[in-house]
Amino acid sequence: MRPAIALLFLLASAARGDVGPVTDSDPDVEVARRHFEHGLELYMNARYSDAIGEFEAARRLKPLPALGYNIARCYDRMERWQEALAEYERYTQLIAPVPPDRELQERIQVLQDRIRAAGRRSRPRRFVWPGGVLAGALGIGIIAAALDIHVAVRLPTLTRDYEAAPTPEGQDEGRRLRGMSVAADVLFAVAAAAAVVDVALWVRAARRKSVGLAAAIAPAGGAVAIQGRF
Fold it and tell me: How far apart are the C-alpha atoms of 68 and 22, rounded to whole Å?
């Protein structure tokens, strides 16, 4: 919004009679004025959370729409966009049928777009970790290991027996054991490949999960713009 600050005419309004039946004897005017002035000082010193408390206190006593706008500006500068948008929209409803200025309308649109974008980014991605791949790889590895152990245990005995008394049966069993050894090597390779794929998928899922909300922060612009009279 525009950087100009339209101050609330707290001190002069009662003297001019702008507030109708409210007089200098009305204690709510004095207290609300005090809260407002303190809130404005806090706002100008970037103490937005404390300023909200003061503006809220003033609004409870004198519910002027402009105080809601001030609260919205504080939330906006604190990057609490949901609360800022709610206060801006409440302000526009309270000043109706007078339309809000163009800059305020644009700011409301910016916050609406930002909140929608943040909602889309924060939706959890459904990713089922393919643990079955790892389990399958483990099973294949166990089978391959069993084959390899069998070959390692049986082959020396068969070789010794065959050298002592060569037979066709011994020759056939030797071929079978060599085939089992090759099969075990292939199974080990398949299990290793499956495990690598599973780990790669897990890393990919972990990276996606770690992507935080990266909503672009547009400048809030402007300063507190207070108008109206107590």
Answer: 21
Q: How far apart are the C-alpha atoms of 37 and 50, rounded to whole Å?
A: 12
Span 73-108, pLDDT tens digits: 999 999 999 999 999 999 999 998 888 899 999 999
Report the phi/psi class of residue 17: left, alpha or beta, with left for phi > 0 and alpha for psi in -120 to 50.
left
Task: Compute the distance between CA of residue 107 and CA of residue 128 in angstroms, rounded to an integer.
Answer: 40
The residue assigned the tokens 């729409």 is 65
pLDDT in tens, 3-48: 333 344 333 343 333 444 445 568 999 999 999 999 999 999 999 9
Helix (H) or strand (E) holding 17: none
Three-state DSSP class for residue 125: coil
Quote the distance between the C-alpha of residue 211 and its chain's center.
Answer: 8
Secondary structure (DSSP) of 61-84: HS--HHHHHHHHHHHHHTT-HHHH
How far lies 222's CA from each of 70, 189, 202, 214, in Å? 12, 65, 47, 24
Sort 85 into a burial class: Cβ within 10 Å, 0-12 / 13-18 / 19+. buried
Is residue 214 within 8 Å of residue 185, measured between CB atoms?
Answer: no
pTM: 0.49
pLDDT at 176: 80
Q: How far apart are CA 61 and CA 32, in angstroms?
A: 6
Prior bond of 63 cis (ω within 30°): no
